[in-house]
Amino acid sequence: MRVGHGAQRLEVVAGERMGGYADRSQGVRSVLEPLEVHVVTFADEAHRFALVVADLICVNTDIVELIRAAFLELRIDSCWVAATHTHASPEAGCVPGGSPTPPALGERIVEAAVAAAKAAVVDERATSLGYTRAWVAGLAGRRNAGDATPIDVPVDAIVVSNEETVVGVVTVSPVHPTVLPADNSDVSADLNGGIRRVLDAPGRWVVAATGAAGNISTRHTRQGRSLNEIDRLAAVAANSLELDAARRSQPPDGTIHPPASRVIRLEPKLPAEVEAAMAAVPPAAIQADARSHEVFEQGRRIARELATQRRVEAYDVEIQAVSLAGITLVAIPGELFLELGESIRGAAGSDVIVLGYANGYLGYLPSLSTPPTYETLVSPVRLGSGEQVVDAAVHIAESVRGGEERT
Question: Model-level pTM?
Answer without folding.
Answer: 0.95
